[in-house]
Design a protein that fits this description.
Length: about 210
C-alpha cells in the first residue's frame, strides 16, 4: 500500500506565546503547527498499523533527533512491535558529506528475518540514510522500509523514497520537534523557520 501524498504547507504568522523569548526572537515564522504535526503522524501510524498488522515489525531510529517523532508515531501505531535505536557520529566533515558515519551505539536486537521500519526525522541529501540502509540490509531483514516525518527533496543526492512520509519541506533551516540548531530548539512542539541572521551571527563568533 502506498501512503498518501504529503499535505501542502502554508507558512503561518506568529509564534505561540508559550515559546521562550530567546527562542521566539530567533524564529522567522511558524511552518507547521502542533495540531497539523500530530494529525499527520496519526495518519502515518494508522497506515503502518494496516500494513504491518500481523508482521510484528521492528522500529529503528537514530538518536537523538528522532525521539519526538518516534515516540508519537509509536503511540499512533496500535499493533505488536519492537523498538530499537542506533547512535552515530561523523568521522570528519569530509566523511559526513559522503554519508560515512561511525556507529557509536548499534542495535540490541537481531533484525534477521524481521520486518524493519527505519524511522527518520528528516531526509536531506540522503547520503547518511543511504549508508545506514545498506548496513541494515546486510543483516538480512525480511523487509526494510522508511518512515520519515520530513523530506527536503530539493537537496537529495541519492534516490531514496520513504514509504511513509509526513511533509515535504522547503530548503530552509527548520527547527523544533526534534530538529535543532546547536542543540537548541528540539523541545518546541511545532516546526519553525530559523531566522537567517541567527546562523550568520553564529558563524561570525570567534572560535575558542
Amino acid at each position: 500500500m502506498t501512503f498518501q501524498t504529503p499535505p501542502s504547507l502554508t507558512p503561518k504568522k506568529g509564534i505561540p506565546g508559550t515559546v521562550p523569548e530567546t527562542y521566539r526572537s530567533a524564529l522567522s515564522h511558524l511552518l507547521i503547527d502542533e495540531d497539523t504535526l500530530q494529525n499527520r503522524i496519526r495518519e502515518m501510524g494508522q497506515a503502518i498499523a494496516r500494513d504491518y498488522a500481523d508482521k510484528n515489525p521492528v522500529f529503528v531510529g537514530v538518536l537523538k533527533g528522532v525521539l519526538f517523532f518516534m515516540a508519537d508515531l509509536l503511540r499512533y501505531t496500535p499493533i505488536p512491535l519492537a523498538v530499537d535505536f542506533m547512535a552515530i557520529s561523523s568521522y570528519s566533515p569530509e566523511t559526513r558529506d559522503q554519508g560515512l558515519v561511525r556507529i557509536t551505539k548499534d542495535l540490541d536486537l537481531c533484525i534477521e528475518g524481521r520486518h524493519v521500519i527505519f524511522v527518520e526525522d528528516i531526509i536531506d541529501t540522503g547520503l547518511t540514510l543511504g549508508y545506514l540502509l545498506r548496513l541494515l540490509r546486510s543483516r538480512h531483514p525480511a523487509s526494510l522500509e522508511v518512515a520519515a516525518l520530513f523530506d527536503k527533496p530539493g537537496r537529495r543526492l541519492i534516490d531514496i523514497k520513504p514509504r511513509y512520509l509526513g511533509f515535504h519541506l522547503p530548503d530552509l533551516f527548520v527547527v523544533g520537534y526534534g530538529l535543532d540548531f546547536r542543540e537548541h530548539f528540539r523541545n518546541l512542539p511545532f516546526v519553525g523557520v530559523l531566522n537567517p541572521e541567527v546562523i550568520k551571527n553564529q558563524k561570525r563568533q570567534p572560535k575558542r
